[in-house]
Amino acid sequence: MRVFVAGATGAVGNLLVPMLLAAGHEVTGTSRSLAGVERIRSFGATGVQADALHAEKLRHVVCAAAPEAVIHQLTDLSGADGAANGRVRRDGTRNLVDAAKAAGVDQIVVQSISWTYAPGEGPAEEAVPLDSTAAQPRAAMVAAVRALEETAAEVETAVVLRYGLLYGPGTWYAPDGAFAAALAGDRTARFLGSTVANDAVSSFVHVADAAGAALAALGWPGGPVNIVDDEPAPAREWLPELAKALGVPAPGPVPGRQEWERGASNALARSRGWQPEWPTWRTGFAAQRDIP
Known about the structure:
With 292 residues, this protein is of the alpha/beta class. The longest helix has 21 residues, at 82-102. 48% of the residues are buried. It has helices at 13-22, 34-43, 55-65, 82-102, 138-152, 178-183, 207-216, 235-246, 267-271, 281-288, and strands spanning 2-6, 26-31, 46-49, 69-72, 107-113, 157-163, 165-167, 201-202, 204-206, 223-227, 233-234. It has a 7-stranded parallel beta sheet, sandwiched between helices. A two-stranded parallel ribbon has the order 7-9. A two-stranded antiparallel ribbon has the order 8-11. Helix 1 (13-22) crosses helix 7, helix 3 (55-65) packs across helix 4 and helix 4 packs parallel to helix 5. It has a single domain, classed as Rossmann fold (3-Layer(aba) Sandwich), CATH 3.40.50.720. It has 10 helices and 11 strands.
C-alpha cells in the first residue's frame, strides 16, 4: 500500500516509518526541515519537506505521492506551546484532510489523545463523549481535539487513535525529556504536564506501541480507539516509579484529582488484535533505565 505519513520525524513517526517499510508498504513522509527529510530518506522512504500549515504545498506533495492511505502524526510540542499545538490540530488537520480528499484518499489514521473525555468514574471507553464542560485552558485543548476528529471524519474511513501519555524515546517522559528536567528543578524546562503526585488517574502508552497501533490501524474500521496500556493509575503510584527510572527526585503524595482525570480503557484496541509490547507502565518505565 502507498502510505503518506504527515509528521514522519516526530516521536511516533520516527518509529512508524521503519515499521511501515518492514511491512511492505511504500512510504512518503513529511518533515518541516531538510534534516528531517534526510532522516526519512535514510530509512528507505521518500522524504518531502512540507509544513501542514501551508495548505497549497501540502496539497501538492500529497497529490504527487498519490497515496492509498494517509497517517496523521502532526504535532507542535517542542516548545510546550498549547496554542501552537492546537493550531496544528485544527488548521493542520484541515489542510491535510483537504489534501487527502484532493488526492482521492479514502482512508486516514489520525493521532488524537485520550484525556479529553467527559468527567466520570473509571477508565473512559470510546463511547464517552468529549468534555463539553471544561474550563480554560482545558476547554481550548478539547475544542482543538474535537475539530481534529470531526475534520478527519470527512474521509470515508477515519481511524482516530486516542493515545495515552507517550513515554519512551523522543517524548517528554524520556530520560532526556522535559518531565525529568522539570522534576529535577530546571526552571527553564518547558513542560505542560503535571508533576504532582496526587490521585489524578492517567493512562500511558510506550511510543513504540503507539507506532505499532498506527500500522495496525490501516486495517481497522473507522472511529475512535483508545491506544493506552492495561493499567490506568493515579499519579501517586506512577510518578514515583517514573522518577526512580529517570533518576530524579519524586514529590511526596498529595490528595485530590479533577473528575476528568480518569484514564482510559484499551478493551476495543485489544479486541482488534493490538498487543502492546509494554502492557504496563511499571515495566515500561523501568526499561528506560537500560536505554543509553
